[in-house]
Amino acid sequence: MVKLTPDKLNLEPGYEAFPSIFEGMGLYIGDTFKNKNGTEMIVKNRKSSEKWYVVEL
To answer: Radius of gyration of the chain from Cα atoms?
Structure first.
């Protein structure tokens, strides 16, 4: 079985996942990065959810 892990270069605004997925990409809450399209994004979390997500800056 092959485990697929997303790459931060392929993330799009609105992507949402558990913290362990983001940590596997080396991303933590408040980190900013650019995807392959040059879109600058930031990692955030919702108080009402266990998941983290990314939004465009």
So the answer is: 11
